[in-house]
Amino acid sequence: MTITATPSIKDGCFMVRGKVVLTGVPANVVISPASSGSAFIGASSTTLNSRHVFSLGVLEDYKFLCLFRAKIWWMIPRVGKSSSEIPLETQMLLLEAREESALGDEPSSEPATENTFYILVLPVLDGQFRTSLQGTSSNELQFCIESGDPDVQTSQAFEAVFINSGDNPFELIKDSIKILEKHKGTFSHIESKKIPAHLDWFGWCTWDAFYTQVSPNGIKEGLQSFSEGGCSPKFLIIDDGWQETVNEFHKEGEPLIEGTQFATRLVDIKENSKFKGTGSDHSCTDLREFIEVIKEKYGLKYVYMWHALAGYWGGLLPSSETLKKYNPKIAYPVQSPGNIGNLRDIAMDNLEKYGVGVIDPQKVYDFYNDLHSYLASSGVDGVKVDVQNLIETLGSGYGGRVSITRQYQAALDESIARNFKDNNLICCMCHNSDSIYSSKKSATARASEDFMPNEPTFQTLHIASVAFNSLLLGEIVVPDWDMFHSNHSTADFHGAARALGGCAVYVSDKPGKHDFKILKKLVLPDGSVLRARYAGRPTRDCLFKDPVMDGKSLLKIWNLNKLSGVIGVFNCQGAGSWPLKQVAQNLPISTATIAPISVRVCPLDVEFLEEVAGEEWNGDSAVYAFNSGSLSIVSKIGNFEVSLGVLKCEIFTISPIRVFSQNLHFAPIGLLDMYNSGGAIDALNCTKDLGECSIKIKGRGCGRFGAYSSMKPRYCMVDMKEEEFIYNADDGFLIIKLKGDGNLREIEIVY
């Protein structure tokens, strides 16, 4: 439960639950109660402006975690202890507090105790203004409001920053998002949204396989090589490279002017010549025929096409006869000082120079509807809509960044609902609060910057970013942890993370470049995946630690399945460094010379484990370690040590032990050769009759099925047929082989 203790300002101090959080609070700062003990904090000025920076007071000596936009497109996490470390463009701030006193600098190896609570600070949207947080060198915490339109001005913002507190950080974030959903009415919590079906199937994206050189023959070649390896994708994303575009700054026969490629504009809503009979490989007459063929031959369930929110990176070509009806006009993006103050982006810098063909907001629904209805008529099932944050820079003359974002998002939602009945939309490059708090229907969005196969120092950052960003994003969308390469030096690391991320599982392998051993730990023979129930997030004891650069912390990520929990432990140290953060030691990155790091894992690292444990739980858990294949019993408050080298990981299935009789204690593990073993179990029940005890399990997939059993069974049945089993009396490990490639299985264990 979130504790109800409404924040207040007293004698220049901002108080939460009787604790001083901010000192030196200026007189122009005001607080107004919201519901359930939360509040809004704002401020006023004597002047009108389209952008204000207000001080909230001094914040010191609190451990914090923040999520901020390092680039215009993406958030990353940062931890610290004072406001001077809070970057520009911070969009979530979580503080750890103790009832008795604020935390000082003393190191703490002990787990958080009962008197620990958490304070959540969320900069939100206030009318036509968007808010972000930032710190100063004198430890002031500031909030910045901006409209993105010089003509949209204000002198006050009273609901700019939302503050709430609670004893459980995960419940606190969820409760807060639900309060804001109801109060603001501009977005929806993930529980209110229709979830796209592609999330439960293995996929392939063409981007890293071909980049913009994607072609029908290349796609067929890739699908064929997956099929030959016995692991066929069921959803396909045809990424950038299928549209009819032009770079008007590139003259034929002359060298490309570097940067102009980002200003390439859309010429038509239909596919380009590569996907028509006029293309070089003559492999299809048009997009419709191509999709029909690949669906039939390769068993694809869903085909998604890529496009940008503005149509293409550089928008629409104003002189295009077919696109004139959308009234596109060249406009020059204006970036927020916050964006420019962090990492500049090469695409944005060039779009500022060459301009964007902006669709008239009054016509943008017509554009989306025409595009999507054409794609739907061609057999396309959904779209990935990219480059979304570009719109925040184009608000001038349209009522500002919040207003234009809402118009585009509402039009997109309406078109998706009309043309793709299953809410089949993946949002991308959309980590601004303008989009986050305007997300009424979109139900899945990318959680971090791209997986970059050719950047060895980005791999650990990717895993840490998706997990931490999912704290906020996972309450509004199903976070998409991006594709990866199965045939890559870090494939096991990425594959394990996707298995417990609660996200889509898809790769971007080049044709013929696959590691089917990795893929078959993720994908069942029918192409489905064992997706965990929620967004994977860092465990509570990892929230305020830096798993990438502090040299001592491992990253633990938790999730739940229907009957068990799962914890992944990842060593992200020593293989990369966060942008905008100085490396403490100027050492070359070498994963070979860094000693393993240890951490303790406890079953209760899985939040809400009791909710899936059932009434028969005795407090102990059976813990299955995926890589070592070992099974052990750990008490509710017990723990065990894990040591890992750089870019190594281990996944633990945490299955609560159910007591069915004095002698029979039982815990299902699941498919032992799948990363997320417990995801294969849908239901369990136990019946007793005339001295016989029968445990029935509804499961999925094939291969080795494992469980902890305190007794050796008399016999085991799979789909009404008796099957042999292996039982180890020393550790209670019961293993049954599920033969064939059936998906739904009924397992009966009789004692």
UniProtKB/TrEMBL annotation:
<comment type="similarity">
    <text>Belongs to the glycosyl hydrolases 36 family.</text>
</comment>
<dbReference type="InterPro" id="IPR013785">
    <property type="entry name" value="Aldolase_TIM"/>
</dbReference>
<keyword id="KW-0378">Hydrolase</keyword>
<dbReference type="GO" id="GO:0016787">
    <property type="term" value="F:hydrolase activity"/>
</dbReference>
<dbReference type="InterPro" id="IPR008811">
    <property type="entry name" value="Glycosyl_hydrolases_36"/>
</dbReference>
<keyword id="KW-0808">Transferase</keyword>
<keyword id="KW-0328">Glycosyltransferase</keyword>
<dbReference type="GO" id="GO:0047274">
    <property type="term" value="F:galactinol-sucrose galactosyltransferase activity"/>
</dbReference>
<dbReference type="InterPro" id="IPR017853">
    <property type="entry name" value="GH"/>
</dbReference>
<dbReference type="Pfam" id="PF05691">
    <property type="entry name" value="Raffinose_syn"/>
</dbReference>
<protein>
    <recommendedName>
        <fullName>galactinol--sucrose galactosyltransferase</fullName>
        <ecNumber>2.4.1.82</ecNumber>
    </recommendedName>
</protein>
<keyword id="KW-0119">Carbohydrate metabolism</keyword>
